Each structure stands twice: as C-alpha cells, then as structure tokens.
Amino acid sequence: MRRGLVISNCQIQPIKHMMSMYSDDIVFDGFGVHLLPHDNKDHINNLVSNIDKYDVVLTVPLSDQYEEISSEKIGNYVKSTKLVRIANMYFSGLHPDLTYIGGLSKRVDGPLGDYHSKLALLAYLRGYNVAEAFRLYTEKVYKIIGYFDVAEKSIEELKLREQNIDVQFSDILQENYREHPTFFSVNHPTSFMFDLYCQRISAWLEHNLDIKQSGFHKGALFSMNYLAGSAIFPVYPEISMHLNLKYPGSYNFKPGTVGDDPVSTYNLYQMISREFDAFDAVGRDDLGSSHQGRLVLHDYGTIDFLSLI
User: Fold this and answer.
1) Domains in the chain: how many in total?
2) Pairing status of strand 26-32 against strand 2-8
3) I want to staple 237 with a disulfide (CB 3.0 to 4.6 A). Which of 28, 106, 204, 249 is the partner?
4) Could you tell me which residue ranges the Polysaccharide biosynthesis enzyme WcbI domain spans (predicted)?
C-alpha cells in the first residue's frame, strides 16, 4: 500500500479521506498547519526529516512563516515528481460580512467561535446598541460598503493565487457557486466542493503520476466532511438575491457542534446580541486597536449609517 501526504489547513481531513477513497491502493496522511503551535520549528523539522517515505505529497501554498514546508522551500525536501501543489479553497463572495478578530493564536471567541460579523464589530465600535446594529443588515448598507462586489473580486484573487499550483480550483468554483451551496464559511467548503476538487486531483494523479483512480462511487453524498459540524455562517438573503443564487439565503447562524450534543441556530438579533456580549468581554479599546477593528473603522467609520436606514 502506497502512502501519500496532504499538507493543508482545516480542509485537510476531508481531503485526506476523499483522496484515499478516490485513488487506488494509496492512503493519505495529513499534516495540519492550522494545528501547529506558535513555535512550530520542531514539528516542521520532524516532518521534513521523514517526508521521503511518502510516494506523493499534496500541499497548499504556504508562506515563509512555515519555514521548511513553505512554498519556496518544500521543493528542497520533496522530489518534483512527488510534489503536487493544490489550491487552498477560499471564497469570501458568499460571506463578505465574515471576519476574524485577532491573530491566529489570539483570536477573539464569540457565538460562532472565531467567526464574527464585520457589521456587528463596526456597530459596537461606533457605540450603537443591538437594536441599532440590527438595522444595518440591509441591501442598501451592503451596496454602500461593497458586499455585492466581493464575489467577483474573490474569484479573480483566487485565479491569481493559482498561477503556481498544479491542480486548479477557481473554474470549479466559478461554474458551481450559483447552482449549489459551496461554502459553510470563507474557508470551509461543503462536501459538494470537496468532492469535485478531489475528483480533479485524483484524475491529475492518474494522468501525471500513474496513481490510478479507484472504482469507488464518487459524489458528495459519499464524502466525509467534519466541517459540517463546525460553525456555519449563513449566506444573507440579499447576497443570495444579488448573486442570483439558485438556493435561498437566511439569517440563521449555526454554532459549532460538540460531540453528539445538538445545537440550535441563532437568528440575526440573537447573533448580534451575543456578539456584543463577546465584545464586552474584550473591551472597546482593545477591539478598536486590533487589526480588524482599525480596518472597519478606516473603511466605514465616517459613514452615518443610521441616517441611511
């Protein structure tokens, strides 16, 4: 049995499981960069010291902070005939209001984990109350702050990032995001997306590395995607209508599922209220000095939203 390796972020688990099913006589391990501690040098060095045991290595683009497994350096440890550069599936067009607050190791926690609403953050920093913040979630406001333009820009950015990878993803996304639900959040693809992209990767491996595709029945209904248990940020109805999506939007926010304990979704007012509680725990000064806080104030801080709605 051959061995493969996937180096990726939170998308690693669905990819390694699907690729192990979609390709014949090979099992893929995973190395999740999102799980690395702040001081990650020992973990990375241990990986590259044993990486020769793998018959193929699939890796997403990684910056210099990942040292020996960065896009620039990993070729020093993996032969070009074994190294396959794949896409990090990311699309902000469906969720332009979603943001993180704080760095990777110091993110602010809230009702949806580390996912937050930009408008809720802006409203809090401007001193609005929950009822006033609730009134901002309208088509008029989304148009003013550019939410309707994000989908096209996000796809173009993805195409630029794909210039140095082997297996493209952007065309799959562009052809399908209006027809089917494709992302739970900006970086959590649905099983539909994982299935299509892993089918393409397995076909690429067969054509280029003679790793045959298996006879397993491929399709989203047979895929494994633990990300469905994570927090799910909705596609807002106004975004759905503007993008002519074939599926409806909503304001139902799903928190992460832990174990076998069911969760109920939050409506928009509940979500904003819980966001404000989380922001209170951090403090307006600290939020305002965060990168995300400074950014929303810089971009939208001079707009008198309450006079527009």
Assistant:
1) 2
2) parallel
3) 249
4) 4-205
Residue 175 lies in a domain: no
Residue whose token pair is 């702050």: 145
Strand partners, 115: 112
Which structural domain range is residue 63 located in?
2-86+191-224
Residue labelled with tokens 């045991």? 53
The answer to whether 240 and 147 have CB atoms below 8 angstroms apart is: no
The residues, ordered by sequence, that sit 6+ positions from 110 with a Cβ below 8 Å of its Cβ are 116, 274, 275, 278, 279
Each residue's pLDDT tens digit, 177-232: 999 999 999 999 999 999 999 999 999 999 999 999 999 988 888 888 999 999 99
Q: If you search the block for the tokens 């399908």, which residue do you land on?
A: 176
- CA-nearest of 45, 34, 113 to 74 is 45
Threshold 0.90, pTM exceeds: yes
217/115 same-domain check: no
